[in-house]
Amino acid sequence: MINTEIKICKVSDNYEKSKITEYILRRLPEWFGIEESIIEYVSGVKNTDFYAAYNSDRLVGFISIKINNVYTSEIYIIGILKEYHGNGIGKSLLKVAEKQLIKNKVKFLMVKTLGESHPDENYKETRKFYRKVGFYPLEEIKEIWGKENPCLIMVKNLVK
Asked: What is the SS3 string spanning 94-106?
């Protein structure tokens, strides 16, 4: 049962970041089904700002933010357990992360996701989520992840 009480905590411990990432990604094979990618993310989150979401005491999601430069940060990875989709958890995680980025005077937040030219229905929903929370498509690039996995770069202006 989904409790309306969602608690979001900043996680600083690198081991904990990796453990949370692996737990969530292994439960989202529709989005994260490539073993090499999971391993890369589990390691890569160590150098990011990281927030975890809990429903009561149950871990239900996380967001990892990578700093690209003084102006731009990136959603390195975000994952919410499928049964919790559509409950505002991703939006809440994003708000917490954005608040800190704005405090640090970051101007733009970007994300890379599977491009629109790919027919995957799950990523169609992912792109819809990003549009709903204020991201705009910037460019689809086939050179980042290969022709079979076109990368769509989306961006959000954090300056109001």
From this structure: HHHHHHHHHHCCC
Asked if 63 and 93 touch (Cβ cutoff 8 Å), the reply is: yes
- Any idea which residue has 């169609």 for tokens? 124
What pTM was estimated for this model as a whole? 0.91
Residues sharing a CB contact under 8 Å with residue 113, sequence separation 6 or more, in sequence order:
123, 126, 127, 130, 151, 152, 154
- Angle, to 10 degrees, between the axis of helix 35-44 and the axis of helix 14-25? 150
C-alpha Rg value of the chain to the nearest Å: 15
pLDDT tens for each residue of the chain, 160 residues long = 455 689 999 999 999 999 999 999 999 988 888 798 899 999 999 999 999 999 988 999 999 999 999 999 999 999 999 999 999 999 999 999 999 999 999 999 999 998 887 867 878 888 999 999 999 999 999 888 878 888 999 999 998 7
